[in-house]
């Protein structure tokens, strides 16, 4: 299942991986542009554009877009993140030309009609309201806002009611012409697809894409700040998110950070799950994560628990951070490697997951990364590197705390920060009691 890559004269990159045992194809267009590429008055426009792309073109109405792909049993969707946007489809192999045609249509000939725009603004308003009513969404949004205060990276992808309601078709076209250009776009297909045939389809249907932006794309450099934000609500449970500055995709310690997150809170055998949930019964959900971006990263621990458990929960979490800077066992590293390897291999059994994986690698590294190369990077991670990283991550940067719910028993931020001031000794619970 060789990955083949062709760069067209226009600058557009086309990548395929043939999976001859399949009858379907997952294909999509990935753009190296997301909410971080918005100007101050464009907050939320990347997400709105993703919605509007399906609301009618010069050749198809919104209904016709949906009906044509579903008439052949296919599906089409899109997603917006901080640094990327994607439009993707899944169809049987005989209907790849239709999927390519529809994706090209919505990305090159979208109408952005006023009536559809006003209707979709109301849809996004409902989406914003729904997110605000979901505590585990709110705690993450507030976390990002605090970690990267007054920066595009810290802003919610959905935008605000004020910004979303203000957008015009002209503003959408301005963002589109600045960011949706061939040098920033990758078209990927995996499954029952032939490379040369797929390249010809793409070359023909995407010929009208602009090869250079109308203006220089923007993306301000990120600066991690950290801090504390709390919102007391009358809820059954408290949502707590404690985080630190992580590592960018290209940083030496990126994969090391992924392993550390797995060891601390990557599954039922992880340290936090075992100590906090299984042994002490202090919460029903706890996990650790590491998000990488192009120039920064975030390492976080999320827990959901009853407010009465907070006086014990937070110190236990911090105690586990101290322990990770002191001791990590080789078998924990091996378990984390095995889990990552399994995720890689299982992902290759899904054409949609594989297409997304290839697209991310092309955008980040400019080439597909083999599983062997990925595992070789993980093989270089040692106990010493992990404990050293834990000491620097958790005790050398300002922490970020985001919390929502019944918080009257949550310790002051000064006490939490003080307990993270040095990796010298575990069993730091007493400082927060």
TrEMBL record:
Residues 14-160 form the Peptidase M16 N-terminal domain. Transmembrane segments: none annotated. GO terms for molecular function: metal ion binding; metalloendopeptidase activity. Its cofactor is Zn(2+). Keywords: Hydrolase, Metalloprotease, Protease. The keyword Hydrolase applies. Residues 166-339 form the Peptidase M16 C-terminal domain. GO terms for biological process: proteolysis. SUPFAM superfamilies: LuxS/MPP-like metallohydrolase. The keyword Ubl conjugation does not apply. Belongs to the peptidase M16 family. This is Processing protease. It comes from Rhizobium grahamii CCGE 502.
